[in-house]
Amino acid sequence: MQLYLRLLHYVKPYWVWLIVAMICAGGVSGLTAAYAWLVKPVLDEIFIKKDTTMLLILPGIIVGVALFKGLFTFSQSYLMQYVGSRIIMDLRKRLYHHIILLPLGFHIKHPTGLLMSRVINDVSLMQSSVSTVVKDLFQQSLTLLALLVVIFTQDWKLASLAVLVLPAAYYPMVRMGRRLKRLSVKGQEKVADMTTALQETFTGIRVVKAFGKEQFEAHRFQEKNLHYFNTIMRTTQVSEVASPLMEFFGAIGIALVILYGGYHVVQGTTTPGTFSSFLAACLMTYNPIRALLKSYTAIQQAMGAAERVFTILDLETEEAKDRSKKEISGIQHGIEFRDILFQYEGTSRPVLSGINLYVNVGESIALVGTSGSGKTTLANLIPRFYDPNQGSILIDDIDLKNITIASLRRLIGIVSQEIVLFDDTVRNNIAYGMQNITLEDVIKSAQAAYAHDFIMKMTQGYDTMIGEQGVKLSVGERQRLAIARALLKNPPILILDEATSALDPESESIVQKALQNLMKDRTTFVIAHRLSTIEQVSRIVVLSKGNIVEIGTHEELLKNNGIYGRFYQRQFAARERHVG
Questions:
Q1: Which domain does 41 fall in, by range?
Q2: Whole-number Å distance between alpha carbons of 190 and 244
Q3: Would you state the pLDDT for residue 499?
Q4: Where are the beta strands (DSSP E) in 412-570?
Q5: I need a surface site. Which of 1, 66, 391, 451 has the fewest CB within 10 A?
Q6: Distance, CA of 304 to CA of 183 (rounded, Å)
Q7: Which uninterrupted H or E stretch holds 512?
Q8: Could you report the per-residue pLDDT of 451-491, keeping only the tens digit for each?
Q9: Domain CATH for 157
Q10: pLDDT single digits (tens) 157-185
Q11: Structure-derived torsion over alpha carbons of residues 361, 366, 367, 369, reported in degrees to the nearest 10
């Protein structure tokens, strides 16, 4: 019931349409009951009393009832569908918006395919529930109520006998509903598994083909597909048994009515018309009861999806955490890491421990160390992709936790090895996330990133579509677009996460020139495996097993002949062997 009330909360903006639809539903219900009531005068007045006046009047009334019922049915169905579809559209929009506002840790723990399934499949399954709630439950309940009025008006004793079997059908219906809800949750989990498998295969299709694993991936998907099929068939078994079960109980009730009512007709205590009208109303109740039963099973299935959707909507977003926090518009003095300890959830040891570092405004800092030393994690704490378990990070002596995440990230530009581009034009990719940007602004940024020349060689220049993830561009070209995007944003703080590690020497040389333009007059954090790319930074911070073990300039660290010196000598020797 809580889920229903929460779902129906989304109806509020459309209450006028809903009221009109309910009025139409009332008309459908009343006119449906009128059919049953008209059986009595048709039999008694025309076929028994031979009344010619009624022979002319009653057929016209029946046609009129059918006409108005048709108009009400169309209006009610259209309006209910409109309301239901708008509710689902609003819910899907809110869910998507909520998910992208959740912290990065949530996205790392939940596969992309699972989140896609929540937004598309779970919400689609809920659509049948919403349409049922605002359509069938209301209309069919009114129709059933109107028919019961006809039944009890004709003969209340006979009516009591007819509904005697309903309580017996209640218990198995409730049990089946609970099982359907459990099966629905399992079914949606299987859909999420399939979506995840598809997403992984399609995004990694180059690797799949390179290793000749097409048949393996096809088999893996078929296993998940089969699991979903089995769940669907179990759901079908439970849902489809409900209708014949209800029909069986209904047949018992009708049999009792015929036995009892037929006896009174034979005895002459009731007219054939009265009994026929009563029997017609009883038979007509089967359709609304069956529709209500179908609605109940559909609702139970949808409630599983609703639980999954609202579970995500109940998670606190980064935006919610920003309430009552201050905005920041720039950096005046520097960034301080004070006694930082950080450990990923579910891991046994900290990734960073005892980190203390002060970075002056405009200073360029290189983070160096072996894989797993904590370089990228330390950089990820600056835009608050994660928060430290202990300690504080401060900008101008203000703890980042007291600053709104939105204003903090407006100060930060990130260029990483994993470049994210969209299936859009070159211009829109460079201007992504920025308002009131002219083409001239985009061109200036592209020129500073050494991207303008290759862009102009493309078929439509800055209006060229670059394909999903920039598939039509080389790695170096994609990297330069990312640098142009960061230049256009013009952030005072810059994070370069191994921005040249995947490039060939020629492309690296061009990108390095672009990076020098980007780093100018900015507080910069550079993460790099190639030590030759960081020789000109202000200071180099060497990390090992989550601790800062060395700090100094390139020349100072070489003189110390410590960890950095050994790193540099190994890379220099490897480069010499490669050249030789």
A1: 2-316
A2: 29
A3: 65
A4: 412-416, 493-497, 523-527, 539-544, 547-552
A5: 1
A6: 8
A7: helix 505-519
A8: 898 899 998 999 999 887 787 888 888 888 888 888 888 88
A9: 1.20.1560.10
A10: 777 766 666 666 566 666 776 777 777 77
A11: -160
**What is the rounded distance in angstroms from the CA atom of residue 206 to the CA atom of residue 275?**
74
| Residue 190: CA count within 13 A, CB half-sphere | 19
Which amino acid, residue 367? L
Interatomic CA distance for residues 449 and 472, integer angstroms: 19
Are 489 and 412 in contact by the 8 Å Cβ rule? The answer is no
- The overall pTM is greater than 0.85: no
Q: What is the rounded CA–CA span in Å between residue 202 and residue 217?
A: 10
How far is residue 298's CA from residue 41's CA, in Å, rounded to a whole number?
39
Question: Which CATH number fits the domain that encloses residue 392?
Answer: 3.40.50.300
Euclidean distance between CA atoms 498 and 152, whole angstroms: 80
Do 142 and 26 touch, CB atoms closer than 8 A? Answer: yes
Torsion of CA 553, 559, 564, 565, to 10 degrees: 140
Specify the 3-state DSSP secondary structure of 496: strand
Query: Rounded to 5 degrees, what angle do the CA atoms 529, 534, 536 make?
Result: 170
Same domain, 22 and 97: yes
Cα–Cα dist 305/122, whole Å = 5
Could you give the C-alpha distances from 424 to 172, 200, 308, 464, in angstroms and in order? 55, 22, 32, 8
Q: Cβ-count burial of 314 within 10 angstroms (0-12 exposed, 13-18 middle, 19+ buried)? A: exposed
Q: What are phi and psi of 526, to 5 degrees?
A: -115, 125
256 with 339, same domain?
no
Return the top range by mean pLDDT from 46-50, 298-302, 471-475: 471-475
Alpha-carbon distance of 276 to 295, in angstroms, equals 29
Are residues 390 and 256 part of one domain?
no
262 and 386 together in one domain: no
Helix (H) or strand (E) holding 518: helix 505-519
Q: How far is CA 120 from CA 139, 241, 313, 521, in A?
A: 28, 29, 15, 45
Using left for φ > 0, alpha for ψ between -120 and 50, and beta otherwise, residue 413 falls in: beta
What backbone torsions phi and psi does residue 337 show, to the nearest 5 degrees?
-100, 120
For 446-450, the CB contacts below 8 A with 24+ separation are: 446/480, 446/481, 446/484, 448/484, 448/487, 448/514, 448/517, 448/518, 449/480, 449/481, 449/483, 449/484, 449/487, 449/514, 449/517, 449/518, 450/480, 450/510, 450/511, 450/513, 450/514
